[in-house]
Amino acid sequence: MTTTERLAGRTALVTGGSRGIGRSISGRLARDGALVAVHYGHDHEAAQRAVKEIETAGGRAFAVHAELGVHGDAAALWQEFDARLADRGEEPGLDILVNNAGISVPGTVADVTEENFDRLVAVNARAPFFLVQHALGRLRDGGRIVNVSSAATRTAFPQITAYNMSKGALDTLTPDLAKQLGPRGITVNTVAPGFTDTGINPTLADPQVRQAYAAASVFGRVGTPDDIADAVAFLASDDARWVTGQWLNASGGVVLGP
Ligand code: NAD
């Protein structure tokens, strides 16, 4: 377990930070010294456990609740974030925003319903857009935005085509924002995971599926949430100060082709 002080004095918010990849990102940023707002949608207990885990390891964190998606309210998320910081007597403001929350709906173009398409776009593209919009006044100069997309946007994976479209929309946000926020020293980058062992991939319980996903990586295994969290932590750090507008493939080489 890596522990550094490279994010000491920074405040971060990780959407969907209570489980899966987001939970690892929350833990990793806290171990690097950041105060972490663990955002969650529904699972209050999971968020409390994630906060507790960080605090037990000597880090600092608090939970922030907000529904994202079709009925989401980005303004409400930030109001709660502001209130929690004030409760703790912390300085207002934000240094690192990780747009990690996402959903997947399986299906080719023949299968996906309009309702599911709208849900995908609402959570995976609309929510990050408006979260950033409301974050602009809170982000301190020199800050960081990291968007968690998917390696599937740069390869053909028709089994989840609507998901890929929604993440493709998120991909296009990164360079535009990088250009807009560069004069403030804020970097904006994308991390694109490949097959990663989380609840979003229930089919990984099937050994044959797991083997096929593992074989897609040049390393012959499925990714772990920590594999992704470490890439996000790099982009959130000063070490990545000269890196912006980029799409970082964190997939174990999945998009390199056969
Ligand atoms: P996960 O299902 O474990 O976590 C998703 C997180 O998003 C959860 O914390 C969930 O509460 C939150 N979330 C989803 N819908 C929400 C809503 N409407 N309101 C508020 N929060 C909501 O899956 P994960 O694998 O940890 O996914 C994290 C990110 O990584 C997602 O954006 C996903 O698309 C991306 N990703 C995952 C993989 C993979 O193989 N696991 C591959 C590529 C990209």
From TrEMBL:
SUPFAM superfamilies: NAD(P)-binding Rossmann-fold domains. InterPro entries: NAD(P)-bd_dom_sf, Sc_DH/Rdtase_CS, SDR_fam. Pfam families: adh_short_C2. It is an enzyme of class 1 (oxidoreductase). Keywords: Oxidoreductase. GO terms for molecular function: glucose 1-dehydrogenase [NAD(P)+] activity. Its EC number is 1.1.1.47. Gene3D superfamilies: NAD(P)-binding Rossmann-like Domain. The keyword Oxidoreductase applies. Belongs to the short-chain dehydrogenases/reductases (SDR) family. This is Glucose 1-dehydrogenase. It comes from Streptomyces lonarensis.
